[in-house]
Amino acid sequence: MKKFFFFLFLVSQLTFAQTENFSVVNKLIEWNKVYESKLTINDVYSFLKESGKFKISDSTKSSISGTMENIDADYKGAGFTRMGTNIAILNATTKGNFHIDFKDGKYRVLLKNLLNKTISTIQYSPLNGMSANSEYSFEFLGLKNGSNVFNSTFINKPLKIYNYTFTNLFDFSKYESKNNDW
User: Fold this and answer.
1) d(CA 74, CA 169)
2) Which of 24, 62, 66, 182 gets the most CB atoms within 10 Å of its CB?
3) More confident: 116 or 119
4) 158 CB contacts (<8 Å, ≥6 apart)?
C-alpha cells in the first residue's frame, strides 16, 4: 500500500510541478498569477496598448489576449547583481503569449510560450555560440532534459528573477487612482 501511495505522489509531481507562480504542464512552463484590483478591463486594455510591449490580438467583456515582447528581466529589482546573474538572462529579452481574465475585482494573468531572444552572440555559457537574435524556450533553460521537473539552476535565480519581472509587469495597481481624502 505504501508503494501505491508513493507511486501516486510521484506521478502527481511529474505531471504538474509548481514553483512560485511558475508551473510545468505537459513539459511546458507557464506563469500564472491572480491580482486584486479596482481597475476595469478597459483601463488595463489602455495600459497594455500604451506600454508598447504588448500586442493585443483578442479582447472580450471578460478577457484580453495577445503577445508581449522585449521584456527585460529585472534582476536588480529581484535582489540580484549583474555579476551573480546568468549570462543567458542578461543577454536576452523575453517574449510570449499572455491571457488576462477578469472577474469580481480580480484579474488572472497566464503566460505561455515563453521565449528568450538573445541580444548579442553568447560565448562561454550553457548557450555557447548562440548568435544574436537567436531564440530559446524557457523549457530549454528551465527543465531537466525535457521532463516536467524544474532544473535546480533555474530555480535558484532565473525563476526568482522572472517571477519578480512578470509580477511587476502585470501589477496594474500602480495605475489605480489614490484616495486623497484626508
Assistant:
1) 10
2) 24
3) 116
4) 73, 86, 88, 89, 141, 142
pTM of the model: 0.82
Match 489576449 to its residue by C-alpha cell. 65
Residue 154's pLDDT is what? 87
Q: Give CA–CA dist 28/93, Å, rounded.
A: 19
Contacts of 126 (CB under 8 A, 6+ apart): 88, 141
* φ, ψ for residue 144, nearest 5 deg: -75, 115
Instruction: Look up residue 106 and give its amino acid.
Output: K
**CA–CA separation, 28 and 65 (whole Å):** 19
Q: What is the DSSP letter of 174?
A: G
Integer Cα distance of 106 and 169 in angstroms:
16
Question: Smallest Cα–Cα separation from 89: which of 114, 116, 69?
Answer: 116
Least confident stretch, 17-31, 128-142, 157-171: 128-142
Cell output for 113: 510560450
